[in-house]
Each structure stands twice: as C-alpha cells, then as structure tokens.
Amino acid sequence: MYWYNGKVIESKTIELGVDDPGLLYGATVFTTLRVYHQSLNHPLTNWQAHCDRLRHSIETFGWQLPNWEQIAQGATSLIPHFPVLRITLFPNGRELITGRHLPADLTKKQKHGVQAWIATNYERSLPTHKTGNYLSAWLAKLAAQQHSAAEAILVDENGNWLETSTGNLWGWRDNCWWTPPLTAGILPGVARSQILEWIQHQCRVQEEPWFAEAVSTFEAIAYSNSVVEVIPIHTVIEQHGEIVQKTYDPYHSSLKLLQQFYVA
C-alpha cells in the first residue's frame, strides 16, 4: 500500500514513464519521518519541519510546488498502517508516500549501541538536500555491513567526520555535546535541529568540525535521525592499510541526557 499522486494504491509496484527524471537521474527530494501517537500534529512528529525541508529544496531547484493538503491527506491515510512514512516529491509536483515499520532491533541498538565503519570516497551529491540520488550513502552503508558494522561514517577529503549514512553525529567531551556544523557540508537533519534546540537548555553544545585527530577525545558518540531517534556508537572501524578500532562508552551518562529528548 502506498499513496501516489492523489490516491491510495494497493500494490508493491509503481508505474513511471521511461523518461521520468526521477527514474533516470534520481530527480526527487524526500523526507522520512516517524509518526508519534498516529498524529501529524504531535511535536515529535514535527510534520511542519519535514514539509519545510521539502519546500526549501523544491524552491532552491525551481521545481513545481506540490499540493500540500493532498500530501497531508496521503500521509494521514497511511498512518493507521505504518509508523514511518517517506514522502517523495517529483519535479512536476507529484507526490509518492510510502510506509514502513520500525526496525525490529531498534530498542537493542538504542540501549547497547552499534559498530560503525569509516567510509572514504563516498561523497554525497548535494549534501545539504535530501535528494533521490542517495546512491553514495547507500553504497557506504552496504560496505559498512561487509565490515560487520551497522552504520557508515562519511568523511571529507581531509578525513574529518561529517555524518553517518543515515543520520547526524553527536560527541561528548569536556561536559559538552559536539556536533559537526552545517557549513561542513552535511544534511540539516530534522532530528538534529530538534535535539540541538532542546539540548542547549540542558547543557553546553558546540557546532565544530570533527577533525580526524580530535575524534579520539570523545568519551561517547551517537547518531540521530527522525526514525531511530538516538543510537550510541560503541566502536568505529578505520582502515588505512591496517585496521584500527576506536571504542566509546555506549552507556555513558551523557547519552541518557541526549535520549531524554524523546521521553520528555
């Protein structure tokens, strides 16, 4: 079941023209959100922020604006069936809304953390926009899984850590949370913005580049996105001829503070 161009469709396939730019070039923008308490109006769902992200990309690219009321109608029709929705917009204003379930092992990952792998040479296209051309991040995550890691950490040409293949990074040291700045060329995640606004009232937070030589100084690190919330990273695998592992505390008390946003 999905919603496409104004109606619910009971199928696992979709019909697109062979000359559709979305098919040929990944010419779409999308956002993925978790619907809390089956309500688009719930503060944690943050519906308006997801729509604003889509609007910003569409206006930047000069694409046709969609029917926002129709998008809300489509999302509402899928909410009883799926806790996670992905809204995709095409250049001519068409909308595609698909749904999925939360990962079965999400609670375990939130509690015990995951292993990540440093992915070099996987630069995202138009990194400040969430476009359908997500191939590099997808390939990076596949490569990470081949190294027994659940996530990939993307880096710039100097080896500075930017973001994971699916979320934004957070690091704790000196009684302060640190996150890479948007100027580094990362996706302005909706969850990142929510957490950043909230955490500033709880403790110090700094937006600074994650230089390669500084990441070992963090006591704890995690990543966030609108679906999984906050997941600690307990081990980072890096390979430069030989394999090097950095370890972090997935049970650090600072992580409870970061995760508290979702239970506040």
UniProtKB/TrEMBL annotation:
Matching InterPro entries: Aminotrans_IV, Aminotransferase-like, BCAT-like_C, BCAT-like_N, Class-IV_PLP-Dep_Aminotrnsfr
Lyase listed as a keyword: yes
GO cellular component: cytosol
Keyword terms, alphabetized: Lyase
Coiled coil: none
Superkingdom, taxonomy of origin: Bacteria
GO molecular function: lyase activity
Matching Pfam families: Aminotran_4 (PF01063)
BP-aspect Gene Ontology terms: carboxylic acid biosynthetic process
Family (UniProt): Belongs to the class-IV pyridoxal-phosphate-dependent aminotransferase family.
PANTHER family: AMINO-ACID AMINOTRANSFERASE (PTHR42743), AMINODEOXYCHORISMATE LYASE (PTHR42743:SF11)
Protein name according to UniProt: 4-amino-4-deoxychorismate lyase
